[in-house]
Structure formats: structure tokens, C-alpha cells
Amino acid sequence: MTGLRLEVDLGVLAANIAAVRARVAPAEMMLIVKDDAYGHGLEAVVSRASAEGVRWFGAFDVHDALVTRGVVGEGARIFSWLTVGREEIAAALDAHVDLGVGDAGFLEDIASVARTVGAVARVHLKIDTGLHRNGIRPEQWPSVLERSVELQAEGAIRVVGVWSHIAEASDETDDEARAVFEEAVSAAERAGFAIEVRHLAASAASFARAQFRYDLVRVGAFCYGVRSAHGESETALGVRPVGSLIAPVTRVDDARAVIGVGSLHGLPSSLARRASLRHATDALPIDRIDEAHSTVTAWAGSAAGEEIVVFGAGGRSATDLAEAIGTVGEEILVRVSPLIPRTYLGG
Ligand SMILES: *Cc1c(COP(=O)(O)O)cnc(C)c1O
Questions:
Q1: Under CATH, domain 243-345 is a member of which superfamily?
Q2: Where do the Alanine racemase N-terminal domain residues begin and end (predicted)?
């Protein structure tokens, strides 16, 4: 295929998954597939990951959880953590989706739907360890546990997990969060719950800090070959970019190459005059980004019909571009317009 496209190498995805699993073992890995699997295409990613033996998927919203269930069948666990209404709770329970619970009201809603449909909801209680982004506050934790004991005794829920999300910004705040987390797990165990999975870390902490891994780590970025901004290189992490945005050269004049990708395709226009692309060893500063085209310094031999890697294999990484405008590589990926075709290699 030619023309503007996001090439997604499923073989690289498989290799990255293997690298992450080896790194975090004996903890298990949940593959995070939110935002259309970080722009790579939910179904293709889930299908390949499932074939590689991934047994936990993190799908954020119920819609994506149901799509994921459709792809993997009953052989995997699917975790969804967006607080939703009764209809979606019912659909999630019907599809045996594990639910992340960050507030007492949502717990009641889940129990009430579970009673109605005659299901036992598997819940993972979320302790707020300081991020203040949904989560049960430590001072409310004892009462939520008490209520969970009642709901579990009644047969509406089963508490199978305790989890949280951390900033991964500094070791100190992460360590403070970890202390809060461990206290919450202990309290849940004292309340009588057999906690099957404790999960706290995403990509960065799961790699850097063994004591954050517990039973399960929730990894998105590194599985897609996206390193952290200002973090270790992809090579050091042992991963490679899964997605490559490839654009055609539409015209070359005045030592400038015009390429067929612009802000409407999802390329942030703020990259102009801040970032460069790469062709072989040449750095090609980006002059301007218009709606449907961008202009970069031409490289030796560039001509209309050639192609350039905007980010990905053989070019700059998504994180390289992101760093030039103060954001993260994931954002560069999820901004790629859904109208741009995804083409799959290594299937
Ligand atoms: C996105 C997300 C992750 C994965 O983060 P990465 O840094 O991409 O690995 C894990 N947990 C939660 C709750 C998330 O929202």
C-alpha cells in the first residue's frame, strides 16, 4: 500500500510484549488497549496479543471491553475502569468484564445491577494513593471495605483486586503512594478478602522498580514501543515502535520537500520549527505544517513519489516528536486521525 498510512507491525508488537513480560515476570502483564490500542487498532492488537498468550486486557470503557471480549472469547480477563451507568454495567457483567471501582456509589450501582441480572460482579477496588483522579480516599477505605463484605456475603460482588494508579513522576511520591497502597491491600485482607491481583504500576514503574510489580502490571506504552518522554531509549528498554506513520512526498522545490500529512491528519502544527524528521542519517527540520501538507528540508534524492517516515521504524520516534512540544509519545499516536488507514504487517 502507498499513500499516507499508519503501518502497524504486529510482529514487533509480539516481540515487545515478550520483552515486557520477561522484564516483569513473575508478575503478569495486563495489556492496556484504551484509545483504540493507542491508535494502532483495537481488534488487530487484541487478536495478536491474545495469540501471544496475553491473559489480561485493560480496556478503559465498556464499549472497548465488549469489543475485546468479542475478539478473545472467554479465555482472557478484561478489566474496565470507567465509571458508567446501569446499562453498561449490565453489558459488562454479561461479558464477564472485571470492573475497577473508584467510588462507593459505583459499588452500589454494580451490586444493584448484579442482583437484578443474577450475576456476581468481579470488582477491583481502587485506592486513591495521591493522584486524586478517581479512587477511594484512604479515610473512606474502611467503610467501603465493610460495605463490600456485606455485598460479597450477599453474593452480588466478589472483590478480586486492589489497584491504584501512580504519577510515575518522582520516586519519592511513588514510594509514598506505594505505602498507601500496601496499607489498603492489608486492610482488604484483614477484612477477609482473598485478593487475587494487586496492581499499581504502568510502563515506567513496572520496568524501573521491581517492588511496584505485585501480581499484575498494566502496560500500554512500552508494548507499543513508545518510551517515556525524557526516559530511557527504546533500545535500552528492549522495545521497538509498533506504529509508523508514513507519508508520501508530493513535491520537491527550493530544497524543500512537501509531504502529504498535515494537522487535519493529526500532526500537531506546533511541531513546525520545533522538531525535525529523519531520513537515513539526515535530520530534516519541519518548516511548516498546514492542514493537509507539511514542508521539510529536502534530502538527497527526494522526489515526488518517495516516502518519508514521520515517526516510527527508521525515523524519529513518536516520543522524539512529542518531546519537542512538551508532550508524550502516546499523544502523538492517539492523535493520528481514524480516517488514516492502518495497514498491518507481521500478521
Ligand atoms: C493508560 C493507563 C495505563 C498504561 O500506562 P502506560 O504508561 O501507557 O503503560 C495503566 N493504567 C491505567 C489506569 C491507565 O489509564
A1: Lyase, Ornithine Decarboxylase; Chain A, domain 1 (2.40.37.10)
A2: 8-227
